[in-house]
Amino acid sequence: MRIYISIDMEGIAGTFSWRQDQGEWRPQVRRLMTLEANAAIEGALQGGATRVVVNDSHDTMANLDPELLHPAADLIQGTPKPLSMVEGVQEGFDGAFFIGYHAAAGTAPAVLDHTYSDESAWEIRINGRPVNEAAINAAVCGHFGVPVVLVTGDQVACRQMQEWLPWVRTVAVKEPLSRYAARSMHPERARRAIREAARAVVSEMASGRRFDTFVFETPVVVELTTPHTGQADVAALMPGVERIGPRTVRYQETDYVKAFRAMRAMLVLAGSSR
Ligand SMILES: [Zn+2]
């Protein structure tokens, strides 16, 4: 049983602000992320996992403390990575966990809501439907035949995920009060809940339960609406991109991974607008 883990920061118990990424709070947020990853790893191992790979998926993608991480897991860190938040999943796994995930840009109240880029993405739609990072990444996993089986984050992130993947097990570790405020479970209780959910879902898989993979219908149409028109001006320079509105660009592709990479390239371009 091979388990893949993508871990973000915004949906970890005890986080509520990007200021925690800086200065004196930074060591604590690294520890919170690493210990929550460990809870998921321990649960997976207890359930019968034989291989676990963790991908650090937040911002610089250099958050987890490699020495504090459970020694059974391999750790992927740094940026850029070809598959970004789901780099490594292409090796093939029996199931994926998304730990510490958050709601889509424009959701309220939801802790630190955004979609891949807080500065470049007002909204991202795939095949006409607004998406969150979990849905975008679940479809990359699905492209490689890997089902997402566990998602953790704030209550709204978990609810959004169940709309996309009704079969997924979720652990809500905090209640959002606003974009920058939350009422959180104690990290130790959150870790216990995550450990137990990971153990339960991997045991089910080990005893033969099959989970559906998630994919978008093709051709895949990605639409990016940027906060201001200057960002769309730059994103529209990319070959194959169509400008369909003052703040909106569109890209169509039959291969989902190519569409995913194009989405990320559009976000980087949009972010370069001054
Ligand atoms: Zn993040």
Automatic annotation (TrEMBL):
InterPro entries: DppA_N, Peptidase_M55, Peptidase_M55_sf. SUPFAM superfamilies: Dipeptide transport protein. It comes from the Bacteria. It holds the Pfam family Peptidase_M55. This is M55 family metallopeptidase.
